[in-house]
Each structure stands twice: as C-alpha cells, then as structure tokens.
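Reply to dn_fold:

You asked what the input looked like. This is it:
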Amino acid sequence: MSKARAWLLATRPKTLAAAAVPVAVGTAVAFHHDVFVLLPALAAFVGAGLIQIGTNLANDFFDAESGADNEDRLGPTRVVQAGLLSATAVKRATALVFLAAALVGAYLVAVAGWPILIIGIASILSGLAYTGGPYPLGYNGLGDIFVFIFFGLVAVTGTYYVQALTWSPEAFIAAIPIGFLSTAILVVNNYRDIDTDRDAGKNTLAVRFGEEATRVQYALLIAASYAVPAVQWLAFDHTMTILLPFLSLPLALVLIRSLWRTKGRDLNPVLARTAGLLTVFGVLYAAGYAL
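and this is what came back:
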C-alpha cells in the first residue's frame, strides 16, 4: 500500500459523514430561520471535519498503543497496528490536524465569541480523551454519551450559533436525532468488537451490558431518531416536509434486522450502511427544514 493510500485510510473517510451531517442540519435550521451566513457555515464544516480526522488519527495511535487493536481485529485495517504508518508519524499528524482545526476555530471565535472557544477546546480535548489519557472515554463506557453530545448536540447547535449568534431551542431539537444516529454507528462498532474489546479491557457499553442489550439499544436509537420529526410535525406546527427523513425508514428497518442476525466481521457492511443511514436521514432532514 502506498503512503498516500495509507494516510487516506488513517483518516477513515467513511466516518466523515458524522462530521458533515450535523453541520448540514444546523445550517438548514439557520436557513429556515433566515439567519444563514455562508462563511461561518463553511468554516464550521471544515472545522468539524478536521476534528473528526484528528480524533480518528488519535484513536488509531492510542488503540494500537493500548493493545485494543491487534491481530484479532475484526474491523477495517488500522494503520499503526498494521504497520502501514509509524506511531510517531500518526501522533505528529494528529497534532497538526488539531492545530489546523484550532486555526479554523479562531476565525469562528472572532465571528461568534467565547462560547465557540469553549466548544472548540472541549471538542479537541474530548477527541484526544476518547481513547487516550488517564481515563479514556471509550474504554470506560462513556463513548456513547460523548458521540451523542459532540456529534449531535454540540455540532448542530454550534453550527447554528456561528451563523445566528444566538442559541435556538429548535436547533437543539434538530440535534437529537442526528446525535442518536451518530451514536448508532458507534453501537455497531462496539457490538462487532465486543469479544476483542472485553479481552483488551475496553469496557464499552456493549461489553458492560451484553449483546442483547446492545441490539435493543441500536433499535431504540434508530426508532427515537424518527420519532423526533414526527413529534415536530404533530406538536410544533411544522409542515409535512419535516417528515422527509421517513423516506429512509426502509433502510433503517433492514439495518435493525441485519444487526439482529449478524455477528463479527460480517457487521462491517452494517456499520458502513448505518453511516449511510445517517447521511440520507440528515440530508432529508436538512431538506425538510430548507423547504
């Protein structure tokens, strides 16, 4: 494998939907409220992507260092564990990517003030702490909460804030299904790795509560995601365009069934398609707001 391809693999491009979709939804809510501003929206998109890539690189380094990634790994190739890139190179790249995210964040702080500074610092520190530091979030059952907060609530409401310069209850509500579906991606990952994570001492929620509870968690996260636009339509005077995400419901039902019937390495396609569900749901949800 060439170095360029190894670096592309290290960024985990299939995960980048989890960074892009919340920005799209937050921007759509801003457009709905007539407060859309192009440059802050683009900066939020770039910054979110850089933080996602930095987190992915940090995870690759820290998981290899801790032994969570080893020759028994069931998921896609990880560059440090596989020897495709050195740990030192990935560690340096992590620092550079987070530095680039901080520079983009500096522009957003100039636009929107100190709340964005706090969000930016918390996002970068959490990205490092997900699998690194003295108390790795992902190793202690906190990964699901981390993903819901930062890839749902923070990303959507923060994107809205840098354009509107105020907080919005509606942006907060719109963040909830995006956070749920982002968490569902992690749930598939942890369900697939439940045995190897247990052996490595990585106590994810899947390890703590077992396979059946994890399957139920996945189904509930997806079901709750569709409940939010339904409640918005029924109780908050939205037009029927807010129900556009229901066009993706057949895919969601297939994925729930697949998770129930699949284990081990065969879950990799389910993981990719769950990221695809987040993308389709998010695009339809954003379109519903824009329309």
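The mean pLDDT is 92.
Hope that clears it up.
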